[in-house]
Amino acid sequence: MSSAAFQTAFQQCLNPECRATFDVGQVLTSCPHCGSLLDISYDWNSIPLPRRLSDFQQRWSSRLNPLDYSGVWRFRELLRFAADEQLVTIGEGQTILQRNDRLATACSLQPGGLFLQYEGLNPSGSFKDNGMTAASTHARLVGAQMTACASTGNTSASLAIYAGVTGLFRCIVFVGSGKIAFGKLSQALDYGAMTIQIRGDFDDALARVRQICEKHPIYLCNSVNPFRLEGQKTIMYRVLEGLGWQVPDWIVVPGGNLGNSSAFGKAFLELRQLGLIDRVPRLAVINSAGAATLDEFWNTLGLRWNGGRPDAGVIRDRFERMDRQDERAATLASAIEINRPVNLIKALRALEVCDGVVRSVSDQEIVDCRARIAATGFGCEPASGATLAGVLRLREEGVIASGDRVVCILTGHQLKDPDLTMAYHSGDPALAAKKLHPAGVLNTPFANPPVVVDNDETAIVQALGLDPR
Ligand SMILES: *Cc1c(COP(=O)(O)O)cnc(C)c1O
Ligand SMILES: [Zn+2]
Fold it and tell me: Which among 56, 83, 125, 180 counts the fewest CB atoms within 10 Å?
């Protein structure tokens, strides 16, 4: 293990009263002194950085060097916590920023005003691979034999693919019962992860896996793992790259455990500190109305980062009430069906850095917007649909201006949750009654149902609206 890599980075407690630091060789998911979240910090002076961001782009053409080809490790100097020979990659981050003028028009933005960052193209079909490649690198660096995560589905699919492809460690995934989309669960099973399905929801599964990993030699890969967020910073680097290194006006992202939101804020904070950008975009975090803890904290309770000292009483009271009343998250967007976002504090920092806003949107808006995005050829899962719903809302409010340049992060692939897609499009009343109506989705205005026709030429030609010949 090269000690040079160790000296460039360290783990640091987020709490300004503590700020304890720890070697990157330690396995920690919270500060041992005060229990706060940990950040990865860098000694930037010891890292030879490119002078301009565009220097990273050159590497993409060197397809035979796996580190240059990776959309994460191409930017490795900006997350230099391990030496090159320690980095784990399976070709993640080959994702693209797509200009989408049809959706821009739908949002009354100007042509060139709306972009989709399509993270569904990752090896396991969601953005989670950006983080898991970094967590896998750290797991390897500390010699972990066994890794684990709790998941609404995509984290487990991602961890399972890294364990499967690299063979570096075994992997255990904890899922709640019932709520996980079949596309995701089937991946974990297929990639050979040991899958523990507990009776409870995601919040229960996460609490349980944290407890077990603390007592046993199991490496935890949830987004409390600060290394994961380092990998997720690169989504923003690729967005900038896709815009010719110009900073957009808005980044719009669904909020679940708030790992992505937190990582994006950290990415821009660091780029600004390094003088590689001169302004930061605004951040819009979109909750589902059925899992709107951040919305409530930010907009109703007025919780703010406050220099790293957010009002602990407000947070404690809200979570205690949640426990007392056994409030559970409930949304069709299962990837963001989370009531106790573990990265809440870091997300407050991101909202501060990026002059952010938070909104929540209904399941009806989410599934309609998912279908509208898919109809332009970008299949995404329900959680990702929240981004377009958020843009529509913020346009209506005038918070996003018609001339703004907006980037929506499409977090996961359409094929993750085909049951929901079929319930939406098929027009089958039984499917709708089972999947959609309980969530309050009563209309499917963007449905594209199959046309059922007898196997008969005349009938088919008629169904096609053509003249008989
Ligand atoms: C994990 C996930 C989210 C939520 O991201 P957080 O970083 O937990 O806020 C959103 N969409 C998809 C598809 C996901 O897999
Ligand atoms: Zn601390």
Answer: 83
